[in-house]
Structures are given as structure tokens and as C-alpha cells.
Amino acid sequence: MAPGKVSITFDAWTSESMTAYQAITGHFIDEGWHLNSQLLSLDELEGRHTGENMAFDLLKTIAKYIGVDKVICSQSPMLQDSCFSHSQLGHATADNAANNDKALTELEKALHDVGQYDWNSEDKRIQCVMKTLKFVINLLTSWRLDACHM
Q1: Is 5 helix (H, G, I), strand (E, B) or coil?
Q2: Contact 85/66 with Cβ under 8 angstroms?
Q3: I need a labelling partner for 44 at 20 to 30 A (CA). Which of 50, 61, 119, 147 fits?
């Protein structure tokens, strides 16, 4: 991260009452080179936490909080002709779920629709290392226990 860019982490889940939520946190380095983090949104999603619904919420949050360069009026179907600031979006971190990949692909399309061609979801996607590590440990532990019962 460099000063001027805001990277995000996000996660979505469904409550016991079957309501979908998504939290988005922004992370940036200030002029004094101090790392700052702030919860940008904790929203109830429209419908389930599909990649499309998550992307819409991501885009709304980015539009509200990230960037001050210039205002672009969006022709994106996701925002239906609303205006928002040119994004200073850095990287995006989320767990390895397929809906997160879809959310970032849809976000990339929407950003391209409004003229931000330099944000690429494959280049800017950071997968959560801890979730991957937990998966590997569970896999190895499961394999080792199965091997002991042969």
C-alpha cells in the first residue's frame, strides 16, 4: 500500500434468522506513514450473499468513502446513473469463497463501466492466508487421523 490508496477487507455471512450481512473495512497509510483501518460499512444485503449482491454493496461503499479525484457519473447498471468519486481503490482481501471471486469480478466490470480501467480483480485480489492455513491444517489433521485408523 502507498499513501493515497485505500485497500479493503470484506466478509459476508448469513445470520441465524437468514439475513445476509456484509462488513467492509478500509485500510490506508496516511501522510505520516501510519497504517489506519476503519469500518466503512456493515450492511444488510438485499437477498442472499451472492457475488452480485456483494459487488453492489462494495460499489456503493467505494462510491461513498473512497476517492476524491474527480466525479464520474456512472452509467453502470449496478448504480443506475448515480454519481460517485473516482476510486482510489487499492487491493481487496477476502476469504477463498467463490462468491468473493464473483463479487470482485462484478466490481471490476462496474469500475470499468465508469472509466476506471486500471483496477483488475485478479491483480488486486488477496486471499486470506489464515483461512487457507486453517484449511490445510484441517486437511492434514484429517488425513493423519484417517491414516492412523488403517
Answers
A1: coil
A2: yes
A3: 119
Backbone angles phi, psi at 116, to 5 degrees: -100, 85
| pLDDT over 80 (residue 43) | yes
For the stretch 119-146, pLDDT in tens is: 788 888 888 777 778 878 888 887 655 5
Distance in angstroms (rounded) separating the CA atoms of residues 141 and 135: 10
Residue 10: all three cell numbers together: 470484506
Amino acid at 74: S
Which residues have a Cβ under 8 Å from the Cβ of 98 and sit 6 or more positions away?
A: 51
Percent of the chain with pLDDT over 70: 76
Distance from chain centroid for Cα 13: 13
